[in-house]
Write a structure and sequence with these properties.
By secondary structure, the chain is an alpha/beta fold. The chain folds into 3 domains: 37 residues; 47 residues; 118 residues, Ribonuclease H-like superfamily/Ribonuclease H (Nucleotidyltransferase, domain 5, 2-Layer Sandwich). Helix content is 37%, strand content 19%. The chain has a 5-stranded mixed sheet with strand order 3-2-1-4-7. It has a two-stranded antiparallel ribbon with strand order 5-6. Helix 1 packs parallel to helix 8. The longest helix has 15 residues.
């Protein structure tokens, strides 16, 4: 069992109040796995790194195809790399998932989002210049957390944006608000995201463990997409850094 599964099982049980049978069906796992996850008070230990993908030897060929035909579909790319005796033998689904990671996002239609009480909180970092600390100048950062429904704001000043400061500030924000929202929305924060972005983001195990403990569902925004977390962006823009 990995940390992501443990965190999601805990969230569905504690927040959505789903039964073990429903959780198992939704996550496509056994009821024994769900029971084992709920019995763990702490996130499970790390497992071995995932195996290499069948698609790895064909990544360069895919890049060449996209350079010539940027709009080529996953089905056509699958056909091309599967040719010959040493062709790709995996599924089109793997190819499609890889394309979502590397292909530039298409234009989108913006729609106003209305949040319900306790539905979501947005977090981000801002910069507040520098301050003299001893004999050196240190960069001052501000952690900003905003409840999306009430727009209640929490800020905390730090001298770095490392994981320890981010996790501590996040816990302090939840303590200040007196509870946990369902969703935690953020951008490409290095303390939260190992690689990827948006739906393809791969999260730090420690961050997933923290989200699991507080029953938060992490939602990463796509790169260069400040509109998707505009509530907290406003807090950073007009915060102490100005």
């Amino acid at each position: 069992m990995n940390v992501a599964l443990w965190a999601e099982v805990r969230r569905l049980a504690e927040i959505d109040k789903l039964s073990g049978r429903v959780i198992a069906r939704r996550l496509n796992c056994s009821r024994h796995t769900v029971a084992a996850a709920l019995a763990l008070p702490q996130p499970p230990a790390q497992t071995a790194a995932p195996r290499a993908s069948l698609l790895d030897p064909y990544v360069e060929r895919i890049q060449e195809l996209l350079a010539r035909y940027p709009d080529l579909s996953a089905v056509r790319i699958h056909e091309e790399i599967a040719r010959g005796p040493e062709g790709y033998t995996g599924s089109t689904t793997v190819v499609r998932r890889h394309l979502r990671k590397i292909r530039p996002a298409r234009g989108r239609v913006y729609q106003e989002v209305h949040y319900q009480p306790a539905q979501a909180m947005q977090v981000d970092w801002g910069e507040c210049g520098r301050v003299q600390v001893g004999s050196s100048m240190r960069k001052v950062s501000v952690f900003v957390a905003v409840l999306c429904y009430s727009r209640l704001l929490y800020i905390e000043f730090t001298l770095s944006q490392r994981k320890a400061e981010f996790y501590r500030s996040l816990v302090n924000a939840l303590s200040f608000f007196g509870g946990s929202p369902r969703n935690l929305i953020f951008d490409n924060l290095k303390a939260a995201v190992l690689n990827g972005s948006g739906r393809s983001a791969c999260f730090h195990p420690e961050f997933l463990a923290l989200c699991g403990y507080f029953c938060l569902q992490p939602i990463a925004c796509a790169r260069r997409d400040p509109e998707s977390k505009g509530v907290v962006e406003g807090g950073v823009r007009y915060g102490p850094s100005q």
